[in-house]
Structure prediction request, 286 residues.
Amino acid sequence: MAERKKVTIRTLQAKKRKGQPITMMTAYDYPTAKWVDEAGIDVILVGDSLGMVVLGYPNTLPVTMEVMLHHCKAVARGAKRALLVGDMPFMSYQVSVEEAVRNAGRFLQEAGMDAVKLEGGREQVKTVRALVDAGIPVMGHLGLTPQKIHQLGGFRVQGRTAAAAKRLVEDALALEEAGVFAIVLEMVPAQVAKYISERLQVPTIGIGAGPHCDGQVLVFHDTVGMFEEFQPRFVKRYAEVGSTIREALKRYREDVEARAFPGEEHSTYMDEEEWKAFLELVEGKA
Ligand code: KIV
Prediction:
């Protein structure tokens, strides 16, 4: 089968023009990146959600640049075709535009990413412009922005009132004007996501934002049933990998305890001659 062409930001823009849905999935390590890539998914997001689903933190705030780069490098080794987007962690772009450019540059220069994502609307316009001017493609992120969890008062739907929805539309237009190539809309009412998607030239990628976005994204561990602490309403689980792994580990423990593993087929023996020579060597007998 012919290798499919590498996905670029132009591919995503063409998909929007043609009305073809864009697919995006998170990945945080080498094997997952390979699976996601081989499934033909357009975009792999190395999301800071890894803080919760891989590292066990209650939110994404403890995730650092070094942690993100570590995971991005593993993903870049596993993926060949998908567009790779690295999530800028909390405090890597909020302090100053200079720091944001330097940190975003590391995702491309050291970690093999094709683009970065950052959270926020009008307050990030200067930063987005500076990154785009530096040649770094930027994906925006509006609606529920988990790095502002304490300000938002929890993981809840955003833009539910007329005034809040208007602010979201203005933020989306401001990000587009600043040069983002796509915008994630997280936990936004479906009508608002549709309205924004129709007004923007750049694609929207929804998560908990209804069916009218130009694309969809989910967190890998939610999608395959590997994160079992809670399941947001917008998640569709396509597998129950957590139960499969739990069952496999239980069988492994039982096998070892019953001396049923390893069997002969899992074991390697020395040649008879070598074994005799060994016994002679260490014990002076054949
Ligand atoms: O960190 C992440 O995985 C994200 C997605 C939920 C869009 O930002």
